[in-house]
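Table S2 (continued). Query chain:
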Amino acid sequence: MNIAVMLAGGTGERLGAGRPKQFVEIGDRPLIIHCLEIYEQSPIIDAIEVVCHKDWIDHVWMLVEKYGISKVRWVCEGGDTCQNSTRNGIFNLEGTIDDSDLLMFVMSSSPFVD
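Corresponding output:
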């Protein structure tokens, strides 16, 4: 199984939008949805895990349901750094996925991938 681990743990303080930048609306949808849709539509991605700030976990699940992102299987709490969020994402999947599964780490604020 190929799993996209989306790192969305930033708080957006530098942006000054009153919310993390991944939840700022671009056009008609939050930035994180633009990013999730890329991996949702990819034939090589089987599942998605979102790693985010603990205060935004319920919001992520609400967005996933609202926008029909069916590949998101896990949402877990991030850490105080990108490195710690990456670690939390890996440990959250421990015992859930197989050793043969591949993890691809992606940023929730970078929608310009193909």
